[in-house]
Design goal:
Structural class: mainly alpha
Number of domains: 2
Shape: globular
Strand content: under 5%
Number of helices: 10
Number of strands: 0
Distance between the termini: 68 Å
Order of helices and strands: HHHHHHHHHH
Largest sheet: none
């Protein structure tokens, strides 16, 4: 093998090791978050749970909150993937968007509540956390309009409807993350909010 080939192989191994170590640390953080409060989690706790050293924890995450930020980002990525999988041509697909988004968050409620709250309050802010999700939903409304010669159900107000749905969902999500809503209340209220926007239309928005 050439020197260049050995160098590429080493780089590949390093990338693989980095990904594997980070995955182990993230899962250890999830386990701890399911047991208690993020405020009580220390680097030594993650090291012990993961079986890796405290130095390894700090190497990848110099501040513990950075682990929570990454878990928040992974949660939003999963949410966006689920939203994209909704068929925008099925009946009431807009309501399904809220339903599948809530389902993703509730799959690991104890973890997602905490990391979303920390990421929004100690990180980039609530709007920044949801920025990618907002783009995904806006694009869905716009693509449905573009696919119909008559503009579909939303000939001119798809942005308003998308923003109204997202604003209500985001507000409910952070109430839930802060512990003001139970899982059941969050699921019921987020679905009902989407139904209000979609079924009552823009007459209630203007």
């Amino acid at each position: 093998m050439s020197a260049d080939g050995r160098g590429a192989a080493r780089r590949d191994r390093a990338v693989g090791q980095r990904a594997e170590s980070k995955a182990v640390l993230l899962e250890a953080a999830r386990v701890l978050l399911r047991k208690g409060s993020a405020l009580e989690i220390r680097a030594i706790d993650i090291a012990e749970e993961s079986g890796l050293s405290r130095q390894t924890v700090f190497h990848y995450y110099p501040a513990i909150r950075l682990i929570f930020f990454e878990l928040s980002d992974l949660c939003q990525s999963a949410l966006q993937e689920a939203v994209r999988a909704v068929d925008p041509y099925e009946a009431d697909w807009e309501i399904r968007v809220s339903e599948v988004a809530a389902d993703i968050l509730l799959e690991d409620s104890a973890v997602n509540r905490q990391v979303l709250f920390i990421s929004a309050s100690q990180g980039r802010g609530a709007d920044a956390v949801m920025a990618g999700t907002r783009d995904v939903v806006r694009n869905m409304f716009s693509s449905v309009r573009a696919a119909h010669e008559d503009g579909g159900k939303y000939p001119s107000f798809e942005d308003d409807l998308a923003d109204a749905t997202l604003t209500q969902f985001q507000g409910l999500m952070y109430q839930w993350a802060a512990g003001l809503l139970t899982d059941a209340e969050f699921k019921e209220k987020s679905t009902r909010a989407a139904e209000t926007v979609v079924r009552h239309g823009l007459n209630h928005l203007h």
